[in-house]
Amino acid sequence: MAERSMKTASHSHKYTNRLAAEHSPYLLQHAHNPVDWYPWGEEAFSESRKRDVPIFLSIGYSTCHWCHVMEVESFENEGVAKLLNDWFVSIKVDREERPDVDKVYMTYVQALYGGGGWPLSVFLSPDLKPLMGGTYFPPDDKYGRPGFKTVLRKVKDAWENKRDVLVKSGAFAIEQLSEALSATASSNKLADGIPQQALHLCAEQLAGNYDPEYGGFGSAPKFPRPVEIQLMLYHYKKLEESGKSGEANEVLKMVAFSLQCMARGGVHDHIGGGFHRYSVDECWHVPHFEKMLYDQGQLANAYLDVFSITKDVFYSCVSRDILDYLRRDMIGPEGEIFSAEDADSAESEDAARKKEGAFYIWTSKEVEDVIGEHASLFKDHYYIKPSGNCDLSRMSDPHNEFKGKNVLIERNCASAMASKLGMPVEKYLDILGTCRRKLFDVRLNRPRPHLDDKVIVSWNGLAISSFARASKILKSEAEGTKFRFPVVGCDPKEYMEVAEKAASFIRKWLYDEQTRRLRHSFRNGPSKAPGFLDDYAFLISGLLDIYEFGGNTNWLVWAIELQDTQDELFLDKEGGGYFNTPGEDPSVLLRVKEDHDGAEPSGNSVSVINLVRLTSMVAGSWFERHRRNAEHLLAVFETRLKDMAMAVPLMCCGADMFSVPSRKQVVLVGHKSSVEFEDMLAAAHAQYDPNRTVIHIDPTETEQMEFWEAMNSNIALMAKNNFAPDKVVALVCQNFTCSSPVTDSTSLKALLCLKPSSA
Q: Can you give the C-alpha Rg of the chain in angstroms?
């Protein structure tokens, strides 16, 4: 992996281009390249038309390792820059700032060449049709692959001599993709039985890919892909409810073991908390070291879910570890949550180059010097060796870049190690926590990886969800649970404060109260880009979690407002489903209905689940309209659900949720400020149940009662009829009947543990 030059702190740059006026950290990284970069926009397009030259479009993001490599090798090279400046108009795009632009050209490259990734390198005609593309290009020809300079010459030659063929093929490709990616439904609803078949098929395919030795559902490189965990846990719950407890436990074992292996592996930052992007090997050991917000939010939820099933504090501690990392390192002054931390950093302040993982890895001697008397215990526990430990797989370090370095990994369980030393396990764990703290303090003095402090609405939505859910699920931890560094061990209710602050930041800076529209991101002010489907869907999901886990009704009101705006901007009213963009920018050539649940879930999958949740709270015409929209959306993706379920695991869950005849409702009535209310809310969320909605209402609050009288008069009536000034009353409703009221958390937990038939 190439090293990357350090940007000088001095302001006397040899070159400065138009990117210097941008806000995106990624664009600013390229502001002093000799390449005459333009941001995406009309100025660049008209320059291309005026000069009658193609556009070179380079898309990446600020924490992308191979983007940095291509910058060092090509974009900082004056010879390469001259070719680009003479023959092309060069445009830089931050994929996190403009996912709509990225989607168009990534789809093109994937369709034509069978793969994609970042940096994305695409050549366009002046009217923005793609001519050819690829990802990372080395500067010179090697290993039988053309180098970047060769590619530039070939594109220039083709533009001058075969322009008609090139332009026609680009236009044809866009037409074909447009047709393929804006699928419409032939019917307004899914055929009978499809949700159950899709769920079963997806679970079966994932189980077939399960790695029984190291966990996870696939081979190296291993990505966490939390949507797979969600699907398997949902499948587990359905099996358990239908009396197939043996099969259910097998599914749960796969998920639990996978999460254990990930948490014990090097893909988990044992010293500072949180997870790296993925593991290059099969044993979750040597990671690609960048840390992305979308991973943290989803993984925290996965560990919370398994904790709520098993009540094993191993999982609750990992979820706390992730959330405490975000609180410590990734939250801005107004509660906004930042996007990512880079994989690369300098080994020392005066180093000329940045290296992958430098901030996170250790030599055996460094560990000994920092830890002192317990160094031997710590080194045994984390497999630390003088020669380096990246030797567990031939894929861990094929080029010997980490020779003599160690990526912490736990290969033995703490109780066995403590027993070997004749030491109580609690004392052993205390020593590990103290040692991690010492290493953390020393690590603080190292040059930190670059922080991308852009605030992205969709990713904040994912994190908001996990913080809100943690505030109640973690109240089930056994009294006296001991927490060790890097876990802080705070009162879970603090996590709700984090969720509400992040949501308030978005409402203040990225939401227009008049138009009811979102902006996509924020850095030194709101971005020019509008909110996209994922921004609306993921934020709505986070707001529903804030409300269901104890937040005020105003969060639910905002979620409903946003859902109405989402329908107005993105819904295909004739063909069904949601487009990824509002379709108002003529420079974005494709409007796609995204369904793939990958590193992030798709906006359509999250939207189905949002609609199921919302329609279990509201009634009347709003209910009817949104129920129809969800049904129509699923019909659009019927073929995918039938034939390629593993590509859409979260949509499989959504389809099954939609098909459940009657969703369980837990209605809590009482004063929200009381301790009893908090306890009852924690009891309502104590069991894992994705087909449950929690509604809470204080009949003494006029605003709340007015909202429920307008949106669902039955709930308002239940609140009036069951209010007791000195108690919190809970009712569990399903199949148009409600249980007798209960007024203590133990009775509520018992009621929620009953199988559907006995309930």
A: 27
Nearest in space to 617 (alpha carbons), one of 563, 566, 687, 578: 563
* Angstrom distances, CA of residue 482 to CA of 79, 149, 186, 415, 495: 59, 58, 56, 16, 18
- Among residues 369, 439, 357, 440, the alpha carbon closest in space to that of 402 is found at 357
As given in the structure block, the two tokens for residue 80 are: 């390469």
Compute the distance between CA of residue 288 and CA of residue 278 in angstroms, rounded to an integer. 6
Question: If you ran DSSP here, which 8-state letter would residue 223 be given?
Answer: P
When pLDDT is cut at 50, 70 and 90, the band that residue 756 belongs to is low
Check: CB of residue 618 under 8 Å from CB of residue 712. yes
Q: Of 195, 255, 261, 262, which Cα lies nearest the Cα of 228?
A: 255
Check if the beta carbon of residue 699 is closer than 8 Å to that of residue 722: no
What is the β-pairing status of strands 511-512 and 521-522? unpaired
Tokens representing 30 are 């390229």
Mention every residue, 6+ apart, whose C-beta is less than 8 A from residue 14: 32, 34
Distance CA(431)–CA(748), nearest Å, equals: 40
- How far apart CA 132 and CA 136 sit, in angstroms, is 13
pLDDT in tens, 358-370: 999 999 999 999 9
Beta bridge partners of 71: none
CB 28, CB 22: distance < 8 Å:
yes
What is the DSSP code (8-state) at residue 645?
G
Does the pTM surpass 0.85? The reply is yes
* Buried b or exposed e, range 68-92, using 16+ CB within 10 angstroms: bbbbbbbbbbeebbebbbebbbbbb
Reference 379, options 366, 390, 393, 395; nearest CA is 366
pLDDT tens digits, one per residue of 613-663? 999 999 999 999 999 999 999 999 999 999 999 999 999 999 999 999 889
The residue written with tokens 């009953």 in the block is: 754
Residue 208 φ/ψ, nearest 5 degrees: -70, -25
pLDDT at 208: 97
**Rounded to 5°, angle at Cα 597 from 592 and 598:** 105
